C-alpha cells in the first residue's frame, strides 16, 4: 500500500471565523420509488429536522438540489419543501442546479449562508424522481449537461461519454476492463450492506468482467455493472453553527473543515479527458483549507457514476500515479480494510444516483461513518472524510472535508 502523507491541521473556521456543522440528516431508500418528488422531499426534510432535534420553526433558510432537465413535469420545485411543515412558510427557499453535482451545490450554498451570517440554521434537501420517464427521455435529460450532445436523443445517456474515457485510458495506458470489474464488485459488496441502496446484491468480479445476457454492453467497454442505475430518492441535512446545536440531536454531528468548488471548460476539446482538472482544483482547495493531505483521511465518498470515473479519480486525487489506478484496488488500499477506503456506502454505482440527491446523500453517508452510526457499513476508525461530487464529465466539481466531533 502507498505511504499517505499527512498535513497540518486547520479548519474552515480558521479561514472564515465560523464553524459549520451538520447537526442532523436523513436518507430515503434509493431505487424505483412510489412516492412523487414531493413525497420524497417531504419524507427526507421531516426526518432530517427530527434527527437534528429541532423544530421546523428553527430553520432560517431552505436550499433544494434538483437537476430535472425534463425528467419531471414540475420544473419549479423549491417550495415543495414547505409541504413538509407549515412552519416553513415564508422562509427563503432556493432550488440549486449544477447537473449531477446539484446536491453538493445545494450543500455549499447553505454553507455560504452560514458563513455570511444571513442564516444560522439551513435545511438542505437533494431529490430526484427519474424512473417515471422512459430511458430515451432520461438519457436526453442527462445529455443536456454535455456541450456537444445537448439536445440529442440517446438511451445510453452519459454512458457513451464515459465509455470514451475508458477508450482514452486504454489508448494512453492499458485496457481498464478488468479493473473496472473489480471496482464494480467492490461497490456491489458494499451496496449489499447499505439499507438505503438501490442495488443490494453482491456480484463477483468474474460476473462483472464477463459480457453476458445479464450483464450486457451498454456502451464501448462499459457493461451494465459499470454503470450507476437510474434511481428515485432524496436525502437531507441540517447545517448549523455550534451555538444552535440542539440538546435533542440524535448525534454530536460533524464539522466541515474545508470546502472546494471548481468548474472546468464545458466544450470537450478544451479538456484532457483523463485529467479531471476541475476535480483536482476542487480537491486541492478543500484539502488546503482543511490543512490536510491524503494520510489524514479515514475514507472518501467519491462520484463513481461509472466505474471508469472511480478509476480515473484514484489517479486524479493522488492515490496512485497516472495509469496506475489499478494498483489502488489490487493492493487493497481502497477496500474497507485498506489505507484509504473509497465508497464504503456502495457509491453511486450501487447505492444509486438520483441526480439531485447524490451530493447530499454522500454527505449523509460520510456523517454516519464519522458518528459511528453506519451500521453494517461502519469502519473501525473514522475520524476525517472527504466527499467528492461532480456534474457532467468532471465539469462542476465540489469537495468537502468533514471531521468527527
What can you tell me about this protein's structure?
- The chain is 32% helix and 17% strand.
- The protein is α/β, with parallel strands linked by helices and 405 residues long.
- It has a domain at 16-132 and 231-244: Thiolase/Chalcone synthase (Peroxisomal Thiolase, Chain A, domain 1), CATH 3.40.47.10.
- Helix 3 crosses helix 12 and helix 6 packs across helix 9 (307-316).
- The longest helix is centred in the C-terminal third of the chain and has 16 residues, at 355-370.
- The chain is globular and about 55 Å long.
- The mean pLDDT is 96.
- InterPro entries: Thiolase (IPR002155), Thiolase-like (IPR016039), Thiolase_C_2 (IPR055140), Thiolase_N (IPR020616).
- GO terms for molecular function: acetyl-CoA C-acetyltransferase activity.
Descriptors:
two-stranded antiparallel ribbon, 32% helix, 12 helices, 405 residues, 9-stranded mixed beta sheet, alpha/beta, single chain, Peroxisomal Thiolase, Chain A, domain 1
Short description:
This protein is of the alpha/beta class and 405 residues long. It has a domain at 16-132 and 231-244: Peroxisomal Thiolase, Chain A, domain 1.
